[in-house]
């Protein structure tokens, strides 16, 4: 099920990029770098609303989305480590 969702979202992203006049291989590369359907949906929304005129703007937004996702993952990992540390402090070794 998740694979079908990824493929469907990737196809929509590539189609949106091609409709804006960019190459299909750029769309495929963007989809692979974004990785998740949710990230690709964010990119599709950006493309529809902003309609970037250059590949540089498109790639810059992709990198910004990737950066935000990495920061979120790092924050969640830090919160989990902090919770485990606090649990260890309260229960002892």
3D structure, described in words:
The protein is mainly α. It has helices at 2-19, 24-34, 37-50, 55-91. It has one domain (2-91). It has four helices and no strands. The protein is elongated and about 60 Å long. The termini are far apart.
Report the end-to-end length measured between terminal Cα atoms: 42 Å
Structural category is mainly alpha
* Helix-strand sequence: HHHH
Helical residue percent band? over 70%
Task: Please count the beta strands (DSSP E, at least 2 residues each).
Answer: 0
Question: Whole-number average pLDDT?
Answer: 93
Secondary structure layout plus pairing:
Blueprint: H1 2-19, H2 24-34, H3 37-50, H4 55-91
Summary tags:
mainly alpha; 4 helices
What does this entry show, briefly?
This protein is about 85% helix and about 0% strand. It has one domain.
């Amino acid at each position: 099920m998740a694979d079908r969702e990824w493929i469907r979202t990737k196809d929509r992203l590539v189609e949106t990029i091609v409709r804006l006049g960019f190459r299909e291989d750029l769309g495929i590369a963007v989809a692979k770098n974004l990785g998740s359907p949710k990230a690709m949906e964010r990119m599709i929304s950006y493309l529809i609303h902003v309609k970037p005129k250059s590949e540089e703007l498109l790639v810059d937004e992709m990198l910004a989305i990737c950066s935000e996702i990495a920061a979120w993952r790092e924050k969640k990992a830090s919160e989990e480590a902090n919770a485990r540390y606090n649990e260890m402090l309260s229960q002892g070794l």
